[in-house]
Inverse folding.
């Protein structure tokens, strides 16, 4: 791997000698190898050929709707569907209990074209020092009317007196073409109890 992080940038790592393939329109992809039955099934699974747009007035290709953190019965849904929602999220602090096991998922809608190589990046800072940086490959997604989601593996929140406190988090959703679909900041507090 190359392309190490410089300064405060939050960029996906790049595989040496990997070249992103030429972007093709949905119609062009739909017509490729039209007689190949298995390829046609794969294209249908990507949602190719669906004409209905979920958000016709929104020009974005990937519309990230929410981040959802769940631990047992505790579900924290963070709305990031609009600039206003992100602004509201940035004004509050999301709190979780130390040492809990939790799952995390991101919900989004893809429309108008296939998006390849979606990556979810996150950087956690405490007292202005980076304590963790994660990079999770989400995959490639075709346009669908329905909300799509990516679930991440079970994780454990840090615990102990030194781990408790507020973390500043920068999250980013970017694709192989370098298009940043969403880049936002929020706060997470690890507490002794819920």
């Amino acid at each position: 791997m190359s392309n190490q992080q410089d300064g405060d940038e939050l960029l996906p790592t790049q595989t040496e000698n990997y070249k992103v393939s030429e972007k093709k329109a949905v119609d062009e992809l739909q017509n490729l190898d039209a007689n190949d039955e298995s390829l046609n099934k794969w294209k249908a699974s990507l949602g190719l050929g669906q004409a209905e747009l979920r958000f016709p007035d929104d020009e974005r290709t990937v519309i990230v709707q929410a981040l959802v953190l769940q631990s047992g019965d505790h579900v924290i849904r963070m709305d990031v569907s609009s600039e206003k929602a992100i602004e509201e999220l940035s004004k509050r602090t999301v709190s979780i209990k130390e040492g809990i096991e939790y799952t995390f998922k991101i919900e989004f809608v893809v429309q108008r074209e296939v998006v390849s190589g979606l990556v979810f990046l996150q950087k956690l800072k405490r007292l202005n020092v980076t304590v963790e940086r994660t990079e999770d490959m989400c995959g490639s997604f075709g346009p669908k009317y329905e909300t799509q989601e990516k679930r991440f593996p079970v994780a454990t929140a840090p615990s102990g007196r030194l781990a408790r406190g507020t973390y500043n988090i920068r999250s980013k959703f970017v694709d192989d073409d370098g298009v940043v679909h969403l880049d936002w900041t929020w706060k997470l507090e690890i507490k002794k109890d819920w």
Summary: The two ends are 39 Å apart (CA to CA). Confidence is low (pLDDT under 50) at residues 1-6. The first helix runs from residue 26 to 31. The beta strands are 62-71, 74-79, 93-97, 101-110, 115-126, 129-141, 148-156, 165-174, 180-191.
